Each structure stands twice: as C-alpha cells, then as structure tokens.
Amino acid sequence: MFAESDKTARLDFTGLTNTRFPHVLMSNQNQTEAILRRRLAARGQLVRWGTRLISVVPDPDGGGVTATLALPDGRIEEVHAEYVIGCDGTHSTVRRELGLEFAGTEYAGRTRMADAVVRGLPLDDDRLHYLVAKTGMLMVTELPGGRSRLVFSEPGEATAAASVDVAAIRRDLQAVFDRWFPGQVTLEAPAWATEFKQYRRQSADYRSGRIFLAGDASNVRSIAGGMGLNCGMLDAINLSWKLAAVLTGKAHPSLLDSYERERVPADAQVMAVAAQLHAILMDHHTPVTQRIALVENAGFQTSVTSLISGLGYTYRDVIPTPAGARVLAGLTAGDRAPDVGINARIGIHDMLDHPNYTLLTVHRRARSVWETQALVRQMRQHFGDRVRSVSVCPPDTQLAPTGTVFSDTNHVHDLYGSADSDVACLIRPDGYLAGRVCLADCGTLLADLGTVLI
C-alpha cells in the first residue's frame, strides 16, 4: 500500500497458519466460471444462457416451487422444483418476488474497473498494490495472461450506465498513472471495463419456505478486500451439503433451518471487514493520514489477513457445544477445522475429501485407540456410510486397528487434542466442527447427530 508516493503498509499473507495456501491467488471471474461450468457438465448439467426468471411461486401445499422462465426464443416455460436458490445478484428477482427487504446504504464515490495490459509499471508484479491519495485510490494487480486488474475509486457521483465508455475509462486511468509515475506507464486498450456503484446491504432473511437466497442476492459489500466471490461460495457450500443430505433422504428437513442462522451473521462479519477496508482505501473525504493510522492499529495485520482469507470466520456463536459435554479449551463447535499435517504424506483436510461427516478421534495413548472400536461400530450401526471415522495416534504408537493414521509430529494433537484426555471431533461436510468433546463424552456428539441424520 502506497500513500502519497510513500510505502506505508503491507498485508503479509505468508503468516497465515493451518493452511497449505498462505498467499493471495488472483483469478479472473471468467476462469472461475469456466471451472464451475466444466464441473456441472461432468455431472450432466448445463447452464441455460439467455433465460430470464419472471416469477417464483410456492405451491399452496408447500411441497415445491414453480418458476416461470422467459426463454431466448420468446417462449414462456414453467418449471416445478422441490427447492429454488436465488443466486441472481444484487438486483435479485427472487428476492423481489419474496418481498424481502434489502436494507443498507450506498457508499459515496465513483468506482471503475478494467482489465488491461500495463507497460512500464515500476511495481512488483507478484503483489496487489493500492495507491492511495487525496484524489482517489488505484488498485493494480497482475492477472494470468499478461493483463492487470485495475480498480479506480475517486470522489464524485457514482453511475451505473447501461453502456460503458471504455475509451473514457482508459483515458482516466492513464491520467492516474501519469500522476503517480510521470512518463513511465502506458495503458493499452482494456479488454473489459465497467463502472458501478458500491453498497453495503443485507437481507434479514435468507429463506422463505423452499426458496433460498445466496451470494449477492442476499448480501453485498464494498469490493475492498475482494471478498465477494468467496463470500458467495461459502453461502453455496453451507447450503449445498445440507440440501443434498435432505434431498437424498440422509437428513431431516429441519437441517435447512441452520443455513440462515449460520450465514446471516457470517456474511455480516464479511461486510464489516469490507467496510473497515473501504474506510482506509476509499473514504476520500477523510484525510489520508487518518486512514493510514487505522492500518497501524495493533492487531490489524493478523485480523485482516485472517478474515480476507476466509480462515477466521466461525459459526461458534450459533452452533453450541453438545448438551452434557464438558467444554474444552481451544477449538469448539462452529470453528473451521484447521488443515494441519498428520504426517509427511497426509493432512487433516485430505481425510475430509468426501461428502459426509467425519468423526476424528485424537489419542494421547496408543492403547486408547483400541478402546474406541466399540464406539466406531456403534456409529456405523446407526449412521452407516453417512459418517466416516478417522483415528490419529501419537508418534510412538507401535500397533493400532486398521484405518488408524499414525502421526509423526504432535501438530494434530496440539491443535485438536487435549492435554488431559483423548478427544473426539465431529466435522461437517463443509469442514466446520459440529462438536469437539472428550472421548468419554462422545455419546453427546452422536446424540446431536441423531437429531440431524435420518
């Protein structure tokens, strides 16, 4: 981050812990969409382009939803579905049809974005740069393929015109580069450019019967920090495993009630962080020196990198510890299951690469892993393949049941275990803890799970 030509701050993601990816990865949205389309096609599904939603109407008996669609050839089609998810953006038709309020405010200022080749830029090409001045903020970061993503925010009246004057945006961006780096930088014609308004808005409800909202249809935030797409994908991940479990008859429909309960406060956390970053980068009415002072606050680096990366968000305020279980220090229900190496070949997240719950038991003593076999048999009897079990033994273990994973460090035990007891962790399909208890209290985990799974 540069302010008035002086480097003032640097967000360092290499300090992130319990992840294999302590860095920023920039990817064009069209590349992300292409990956998702290929995944859909592999499952026999296609995106229907040029199709517009006219209305969504719940069945009178509550058994489904009828969506009315306008097709590219002008025909009208009615589609009946068990559930509908509105992922249709800030101006969501689904949200409007449900009559849900989208409360919030509009950020002041004018914002433009473009992807273009930038030549002669005297900045490292492996970082995301913010150039902050009283006249505005310019963000520059290199994208795959030789282009750079440029975002320019300045005081003024925001517009959201139906057509974008790409030549004018190029001219204005070139003028900004000339102010920062006189005579050094040349901006080629953008491959793509847009101008837009920024909002901080959130729907109080993410669900109405069998209709859900996700992504920008449910909440929008400042682009500061670039958290929008990740936020929408976390909505989708949270809802999709629950919906899949209900539709396949593995879980009670009441499981879907937890989507709104968990994602409304989680998305509010994202919006708050984005607002904090917006105040630093794009609050053009506040002197730059005052904005930089916010960056220098103690703990800013750790807090912001944790939240931008998505690793720091938790559902612990809405997922209680199972009733009757002793509360352990450290990780708790609602926390993200951290990725940590078990041994040189495998890590915790490798054990979660399946669509079911995982019961992870962490043992201080080699002998205790044998004592859990009755528990594992009981779990299989009740839940079948809907729960997988993984036992992690300490480094000095000589003999253990088939399927036990031997650790060669104490990392898993330090993070997931306890100093005075063996521990059982129930991890949901989305990688968050449903509970973490002493092994002796494992029955409380299974009792809770019995209220979710059929």
UniProtKB/TrEMBL annotation:
<keyword id="KW-0274">FAD</keyword>
<dbReference type="InterPro" id="IPR002938">
    <property type="entry name" value="FAD-bd"/>
</dbReference>
<keyword id="KW-0285">Flavoprotein</keyword>
<dbReference type="InterPro" id="IPR036188">
    <property type="entry name" value="FAD/NAD-bd_sf"/>
</dbReference>
<dbReference type="InterPro" id="IPR050641">
    <property type="entry name" value="RIFMO-like"/>
</dbReference>
<dbReference type="Pfam" id="PF01494">
    <property type="entry name" value="FAD_binding_3"/>
</dbReference>
<dbReference type="GO" id="GO:0016709">
    <property type="term" value="F:oxidoreductase activity, acting on paired donors, with incorporation or reduction of molecular oxygen, NAD(P)H as one donor, and incorporation of one atom of oxygen"/>
</dbReference>
<dbReference type="GO" id="GO:0071949">
    <property type="term" value="F:FAD binding"/>
</dbReference>
<protein>
    <recommendedName>
        <fullName>FAD-binding domain-containing protein</fullName>
    </recommendedName>
</protein>
<feature type="domain" description="FAD-binding">
    <location>
        <begin position="14"/>
        <end position="272"/>
    </location>
</feature>
